[in-house]
Amino acid sequence: MSNDARTEHDPFVALQDSPEFADLRSRFRRFVFPMTGLFLAWYFLYVLLSVYASDFMSTKVFGNINVGLLLGLGQFVSTFVITILYVRWADREFDPRAAALATTIGDDHR
Amino acid sequence: MNSAYGVVAIVLICTVTLAIGAFGLRLSRTTSDFYVAGRTVTPYRNASAIGGEYLSAASFLGIAGLVYTNGLDMLWFPVGYTVGYVVLLVLVAAPLRRSGAYTLPDFAEARLESTVIRKLSSVLVVAIGWLYLLPQLQGAGLALRTVTGAPTWVGGLVVAVVVVANVAAGGMRSITMVQAVQYWIKLTAIAVPAFVLLGAWLGDGAPSPAIARDTAWAEPLNGLAGQGHPVYATYSLLLALALGTMGLPHVLVRFYTNPDGKAARRTTLTVVALLGAFYLFPPLYGILGRVYIPELPLGTAADTLVLQLPGAMVHSQLGEVLSAVLAGGAFAAFLSTASGLTMSVAGVIDQDLLRRRLGRMTGDDFTVAQGFRLATVLSVIVPYAASRLIEPVGLATMVSLAFAVAASTFCPLLVLGSWWRGLSTVGAAAGLVVGGSLAAAAVAITIFAGPIPGWTGALLGQPAAWTIPISFATAVVVSLATPGRIPRHTARTMVRLHTPEDLALDRG
């Protein structure tokens, strides 16, 4: 079992308190939480539109295809787009920073 | 209907499933192999396996039936099923992988350092798993009866036996292979007949759905689903699906079978594409059903619409062959979902509920594999017995109740557990107990009491919208009131959960 005396020198706690780690986490939160809120809002908006804007939703775009149907299919497409955005962001922004942090801390601790 | 084709298709699917399972068996050697397939599954195959496992009876048969009876709002089911994956990916997938746990109870214990929480999570995993297995077995009974006229107990039994044989023998690695193959079987089985039927529909001059006498069907949120408050019901359902996916035991374990975080993200992207592709088809069957079968024959469930449609549209051997193909696909759906669920439920029963007791009873005179096999049998027998006793309430409805329970229990545990340092042991337990019992009570009333009118019925039929916030609030408030019960290694655990894998810290 660890004790309080040891905890003071715990590399994990040191890492937790380091500005680099805080930066990494806040970057993640700043990207992920708003995005989650935004895409849930978009799904919920669709339900509202179907109920309260049924004229708009039943506007014919071409043939028997109306706005509602297109937006409905758009739900699947947007799910996919959101996932792509996240994967790209993680590959481009998050992983390199995490790897950089890994090298600094890893050297201290090995 | 000529039952010979259907029997051939179903026997074929069961044989293929067993054969691939047996092949995988030879590859499965270590514990890690057994539970997480050695964490070496490639993203593409893993995604196929996830898709294969996720597309259950509810997806293959249930959605078409719902669209047929209730109208286009029911498209929310497939959208919600897919969205759940994205929420899981961005919020909890990475921290969970890094925790190094194999199962939900493992994670709960590692994060909250409490065996009580572990026990609670184990009970919940088993409960959710059984709730989800129930419609798979009922669906199998319905499908086999539709295709061959066999009594409903036969279909469920066939699925139960095949699943027990596969899971008990091969564990996760063989299941992964079985499920990856089954995704493609399912997609083919639903897509090919759909194109043939669309061709037939165009050949008939593309008639419109027979909605003249039932205009409500074409209206959005018409309340045909028997719920008095369709906007509430739709929102609640969407919440349950979006937040419940992360709490489904068989879904989560898949994220551990990826070699690293990057692969886990690739996997999810592929999964979303695969699910999206599949979900284009079930609604098509629902709409074509409206055109060609204005009223279902008395005594047949809407869940069997997919299987009946070819016979109603193409009056020849072709129709029978198409029905058989769909029945085979449906069985692939029951088998793969039931295998994944059984794997998770059996793992938990074995580790947390059975092993010590068995050890005491036999004086440790049993092997690990024997214990797991016994757990496998147990985890299938109980839902099978229940499926004989409980009247089917609709495959997709049943599955959505399992989602609601998962969303009201594991969602708060996972989200708060991986993002909030203030979560205390007592708070987490209170959240699980309160959310779990409220959701379970609502489910029990919905299943046993039948349709209830008005707000009461709506709130009980789709409990997620109130049980999730209550569960979150309970966990937060109780945690704030018991700061002394915050696990002592929280800081350490949090770093571990949020530090990318390649960081060279001791994870032991």
TrEMBL record, chain A:
Q: Which residues cross the membrane?
A: 31-53, 65-87
User: Sorted alphabetically, which keywords does the UniProt record give?
Assistant: Membrane, Transmembrane, Transmembrane helix
Q: Which InterPro entries match?
A: DUF485 (IPR007436)
Per the record's keyword annotation, is ATP-binding included, yes or no? Answer: no
Task: List, alphabetically, the Pfam families matched.
Answer: DUF485
Q: Which PANTHER family match?
A: INTEGRAL MEMBRANE PROTEIN-RELATED, MEMBRANE PROTEIN
Name listed for the protein in its UniProt record: DUF485 domain-containing protein
Automatic annotation (TrEMBL), chain B:
User: What keywords does the record list, in alphabetical order?
Assistant: Cell membrane, Membrane, Symport, Transmembrane, Transmembrane helix, Transport
Q: Does the keyword Lipid biosynthesis apply?
A: no
Gene Ontology BP, a term: plasma membrane acetate transport
Cellular component, GO annotation: plasma membrane
PROSITE patterns in the record, alphabetically? NA_SOLUT_SYMP_3
Note the Pfam families from the entry: SSF
Chain ranges passing through the membrane: 6-25, 46-68, 74-96, 116-133, 153-171, 183-203, 232-256, 268-288, 321-349, 370-387, 393-416, 428-452, 464-482
Q: Which InterPro entries match?
A: Na/Glc_symporter_sf, Na/solute_symporter, Sodium:Solute_Symporter
Q: What is this protein called?
A: Cation acetate symporter
Where it sits in the cell: the answer is: Cell membrane
- Entry's family note: Belongs to the sodium:solute symporter (SSF) (TC 2.A.21) family.
Q: How does it sit in the membrane?
A: Multi-pass membrane protein
The lineage's top-level taxon is: Bacteria
Q: Which GO terms describe its molecular function?
A: acetate transmembrane transporter activity; symporter activity
List the source organism.
Answer: Pedococcus bigeumensis
PANTHER family per the record? CATION_ACETATE SYMPORTER ACTP, SODIUM/PROLINE SYMPORTER-RELATED
